[in-house]
Amino acid sequence: MKIAKKGLPAHVAVIMDGNGRWARQRGLPRTVGHRQGMKRVKELVEAAAQAGIKVLTLFAFSTENWSRPKREISMLMNSLGAYLDRNLGELKKNDIRFRVIGRLEQLPGFLREKIENAQEKTKSNAGMVLVLAFNYGARQEITDAARDCARLVQTGSLSPEDIDEKKFRTHLYAADLPDVDLLIRTSGELRISNFLLWQLSYAELYFPKKYWPDFGSRDLSLALKEFQRRKRRFGGIDVDEKSD
Length: 244
Ligand code: IPE
Ligand code: IPE
Ligand code: MG
Description:
CATH architecture: 3-Layer(aba) Sandwich
CATH superfamily: Decaprenyl diphosphate synthase-like
Radius of gyration: 19 Å
Number of domains: 1
Low-confidence stretches: none
Order of helices and strands: EHHEHEHEHHEEH
Oligomer: single chain
Structural class: alpha/beta
Bound molecules: 3-methylbut-3-enyl trihydrogen diphosphate, magnesium ion
CATH topology: Undecaprenyl pyrophosphate synthetase
Largest sheet: 6 strands, parallel
Shape: globular
């Protein structure tokens, strides 16, 4: 499906939800759903880059997901490792810069190494930025930023009066990236689940019913088209509307 470049979102964020239900519906273990979901990641990354999206953020593991069974958690960790092993070459070839947001220090060493290696090997790439939110929680991100600011105040290098939105956001995990324009959450759930609370403030929200393993590049195109039809006002009035 061809998409006009005009009015495309610069930053698309996706809550990849529904792997477990996709598998259960077929009488399969949840882990099969996660495996299938990982295949979609590859397809969607390519489709987003081709469409001209500048930043694609994918929510793959939340700070709340630690409450899942141990087996499922380790499967999710392993599948990110396998994704990086398999796709690093492709990311490099497609000029994609890979980054992770979240508390990396709590991840197993083998995974941290793979993540650091992938970030390092793609850091000079100038095409799309692929951000993976892994062991990510928005409240933690905001709390971490607040703590950073407090430390600077304590050492005297920042005064409380100078903390405004612009300053505060420089302490977020990926401070240089723009706010989210379009949030997609698959599987029909209508919630944010502690994802990018700061960056989503003015995002357009899109909730397709499909489970993540069924969400293909055509579905991404439909989401982008829907975004192009939306009128964003940011608290003002339409640009083509006269004030009377
Ligand atoms: C999303 O699918 C993937 C992760 C949270 C890791 P789920 O595993 O949440 O699937 P459902 O919501 O149980 O169907
Ligand atoms: C959100 O999905 C996290 C990810 C997709 C990684 P969950 O399935 O964990 O969220 P809840 O529990 O339905 O809110
Ligand atoms: Mg879920």
